[in-house]
Amino acid sequence: MSVISSWNLTISLNTTISLSWRSSLPSRASFPRPKKPKTLVVLATALGAKPTVLVAEKLGDAGIQLLKTFANVDCSYNLSPEELCTKISLCDALIVRSGTKVTREVFESAMGRLKVVGRAGVGIDNVDISAATEHGCLVVNAPTANTIAAAEHGIALLTAVSRNVAQADASVKAGKWERNKYVGVSLVGKTLAVMGFGKVGSEVARRAKGLGMQVIAHDPYAPADRARAISVELVSFEEALTTADFISLHMPLTPATSKMFNDEAFSRVKKGVRIINVARGGVIDEEALLRALDSGVVAQAALDVFTEEPPPQENKLVRHENVTVTPHLGASTTEAQSLYHLLDYLIWLLPFSLPLPSIGFIALYYDQEGVALEIAEAVVGALKGELAATAVNAPMVPAEVLLELSPYVALTEKLGRLAVQLVAGGSGVKFVKVTYASARGPDDLDTRLLRAMVTKGLIEPISSVFVNLVNADFIAKQRGLRLTEERIVLDGSPEKPLEFIQVRIANVESKFASAISNSGEITVEGRVKDGKPHLTKVGSFGVDVSLEGSIVLCRQSDQPGIIGKVGNILSEENVNVNFMSVGRIAPGKQAVMTIGLDEEPSRDALKKIGEITAVEEFVFLKL
Ligand SMILES: NC(=O)c1ccc[n+]([C@@H]2O[C@H](COP(=O)([O-])OP(=O)(O)OC[C@H]3O[C@@H](n4cnc5c(N)ncnc54)[C@H](O)[C@@H]3O)[C@@H](O)[C@H]2O)c1
Ligand SMILES: O=C(O)[C@H](O)COP(=O)(O)O
């Protein structure tokens, strides 16, 4: 019994990072479950009051209970689109299944409050992902908990069509006894083409092999070794169509798979093929399927999913005598939807004092967290500002990379904040260059998170927009901000990921002229020292101040007594100086004094600093 270990990282709004460890047993599904800690995303969010989670479709009780430990939970099912839009502005998170369309209007109606959409299941085709991203709303799903349920339903439909179970049942219930009419076809030795060899598809394949079928699969993105491991041959779309006796669909609905099964595809299938769809209705052109059924090209179809759900009463496919239908039941088993947790079973087993190996076996078999728990964990984690393993619309940063980069995450955001506050007028920022100096090779540094944090730092002080890893690139583009990145490869030890980071803003004037470097750009540079972000350069002046609280930058003609005068003004106001450094061009010439402050000084105190005779210019910057 192997144990999956996981690291969870937390980044809160002030970008402090915490690390916790958890372990869990592998799930019953043999398709590798995403190792939560390996792929993570930052959702920096700060929620003062208890957040509100709207659960818009039935969710297992285990999930509801978990949500209630952290949030106010509003379970309102069967909301009309208008009702959903009305409610959403009062919610921080929304949990749906496939029955709720989370449209652009929903995100617009949320007016910035909605931070997470949790899809309690796999398919995210009912969520407008672009709109979510534009609104900085993280979308998470529960990709593994219903895999087995869906695969079993696929097999149930496969066996049902081969033996006319639904039709024969209806006939007997209608008082008939038609033994000759419902002669079926055998599965053994027949070829099954699994279209989409992902989690569900591979579980269907495994089960079909157990029924004695020849299994082939078509999936342009599936790794060959996964197929080889269960002796399934990966084939082209053409070969799948032309050789299969049964076709089972398991791909997602995307623009590429939409109506993949159309007249053209049906013109190439083996006459009498049987089709099972437990994926999404939209992957089949339903009109084309009807024609293929009527002409006998397709002998039978079993459909769990439809383009429109529920399908209209008059839908000819639903009423077709060679079509077996179920109302999107693929994920609907008690085990998939609710909690069958390892611990419950271990506790249940205790009185039996079973030997350890059998406990292990049973525990492994029943380690089904259920969709409800999987999505509740993801949503609560995201609301806490933790990192979501199942994020759909944000780049994933491996946990170990994130841990190493954490102080640089804080540094980049603060450099962005400082740089933009140095711009005269604060706006008009269009060209930003971020330079990363490192002894590591260019492929050895993932800067996506750092870039997002510079954007956050640049935009948040001058707008009301909430920027996070989800929407940083979109917001930058929308505001016409061109952020370019540059790498400087230094000699030395690659132990540290970065030596220094520089943020430059071109084509702007500065309210602190000394911040303009020789290249004519506002320039701030920082390093991480003892795990803390430090400002180490402003313009062409070397400085050194820890980036916390706020900062006063002050240029003076280099002479004795200035530090004392500034210190006096601040101490009269009870403002604590946490750090001070002076960087000068040459003794007796100009110097830039950097003062780190714990409290914000009054306007009056700042005015007094400006009035010190030797002070040529100064600026107060909030971090
Ligand atoms: N009926 C239900 O209740 C139910 C339950 C669970 C999943 N589903 C649906 O089943 C589908 C598969 O779910 P999963 O968990 O296995 O997802 P998955 O992401 O693990 O697998 C999908 C596979 O489809 C493949 N694919 C993508 N484009 C393809 C194409 N053009 N041709 C062939 N293959 C392609 C991908 O490479 C991937 O391997 C999804 O549409 C999901 O929404 C339905
Ligand atoms: O994509 C999925 O997970 C399935 O279609 C399940 O959908 P459901 O949560 O509405 O049952």
What does this structure look like?
- The chain has about 625 residues and is an alpha/beta fold.
- It folds into four domains: about 50-145 and about 360-395, Rossmann fold, CATH 3.40.50; about 145-330, Rossmann fold (3-Layer(aba) Sandwich), CATH 3.40.50; about 400-540, D-3-phosphoglycerate dehydrogenase, domain 3 (60s Ribosomal Protein L30, Chain: A, 2-Layer Sandwich), CATH 3.30.1330; about 550-620, ACT domain (Alpha-Beta Plaits, 2-Layer Sandwich).
- Helix content is about 30%, strand content about 25%.
- The strands form five sheets. The protein has a seven-stranded parallel β-sheet with strand order 10-9-8-11-12-13-14, sandwiched between helices.
- Helix 1 runs parallel beside helix 16 (about 370-385) and helix 5 packs across helix 7.
- The longest helix has 23 residues, at about 400-420.
- The chain binds nicotinamide-adenine-dinucleotide and 3-phosphoglyceric acid (3PG).
- Nicotinamide-adenine-dinucleotide (NAD) binds near residues 143, 252, 253, 278 and 279.
- Pfam families: 2-Hacid_dh, 2-Hacid_dh_C, ACT, PGDH_inter.
Question: Could you outline the blueprint of secondary structure elements for this entry?
Answer:
Blueprint lengths: L3 E8 L5 E8 L27 E4 L5 H8 L3 E4 L5 H8 L4 E4 L7 H7 L5 E4 L9 H6 L3 E4 L5 H16 L2 H9 L17 E5 L3 H12 L3 E5 L5 H6 L3 E2 L2 H7 L2 E4 L13 H4 L6 E5 L8 H9 L3 E6 L12 H4 L3 E3 L8 H4 L4 H8 L6 H10 L4 H14 L15 H23 L9 E8 L9 H12 L12 H7 L3 E8 L10 E7 L15 E8 L2 E7 L2 E6 L3 E8 L4 H11 L4 E8 L5 E8 L5 H9 L3 E8 L1
Helix pairs in contact: 1-16, 2-3, 5-7, 14-15, 17-18, 18-19
The chain binds nicotinamide-adenine-dinucleotide (NAD) and 3-phosphoglyceric acid.
